[in-house]
User: Which sequence fits this backbone?
């Protein structure tokens, strides 16, 4: 499995593929739809870079581990090192790009692990669990509090969210992450998913959008 970060113009981003740092339950309505409490502080977890696959050309999902849920998210590509307590200007300068992404979850597996109080990495970090579209340049988006993310499946809009509804805004979220572990060029931040998650099936046709900036079609192979 191989992956190279790309911009929408086809240019390859010359960063090594790093880790994927994620935040859970960053939209209150999404937490409620899964009957989860809204966290009082950022809920972080990490996916390995090995789970990243491109959206272009279609992607596969496991067929032997129960329900696979889609979670459309705004992805942020880090282009400069960040650690400890970067200020807001340093974070903004370190953002190399934005893209729509899918954070895939083995929902049945996750539920069983959570019931037992076990870690649930295998439900979130399997091969192919992070599906990334090409990035628009970081300076193409001026207002980080007004980024739309939309997912249409088989002609039906399933998720239609905006960064304005995040419990933890993008810059402060990245500051918090960098305070716990250093971020390096090539790392990707997944910023949480809005309400509307559900199961994917083989053959599903998808349109994934960073509203007003990029739109991509794909399918589940």
Assistant:
């Amino acid at each position: 499995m191989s992956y190279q970060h790309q911009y929408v113009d086809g240019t390859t981003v010359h960063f090594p593929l790093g880790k994927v740092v994620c935040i859970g339950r960053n939209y209150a309505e999404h937490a409620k739809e899964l009957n989860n409490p809204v966290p009082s502080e950022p809920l972080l977890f990490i996916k390995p870079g090995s789970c990243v696959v491109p959206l272009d050309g279609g992607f596969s999902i496991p067929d032997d581990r129960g329900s696979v849920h889609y979670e459309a998210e705004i992805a942020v590509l880090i282009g400069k090192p960040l650690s400890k307590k970067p200020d807001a200007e340093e974070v903004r300068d370190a953002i190399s790009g934005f893209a729509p992404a899918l954070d895939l979850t083995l929902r049945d597996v996750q539920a069983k692990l959570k019931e037992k109080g076990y870690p649930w990495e295998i439900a979130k970090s399997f091969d192919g669990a992070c599906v990334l579209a090409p990035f628009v340049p970081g300076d193409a988006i001026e207002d980080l509090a007004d980024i739309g993310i939309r997912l249409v499946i088989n002609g039906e809009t399933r998720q239609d969210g905006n960064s304005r509804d995040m419990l933890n805004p993008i810059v402060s979220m990245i500051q918090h992450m960098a305070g716990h572990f250093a971020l390096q060029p090539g790392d990707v931040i997944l910023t949480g998913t809005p309400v509307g998650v559900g199961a994917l099936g083989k053959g599903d046709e998808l349109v994934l959008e960073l509203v007003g900036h990029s739109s991509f079609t794909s399918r589940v192979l």
Q: What stands out?
A: The longest strand covers residues 95-103. Residues 101 and 132 are 5 Å apart (CA to CA). The mean pLDDT is 94.
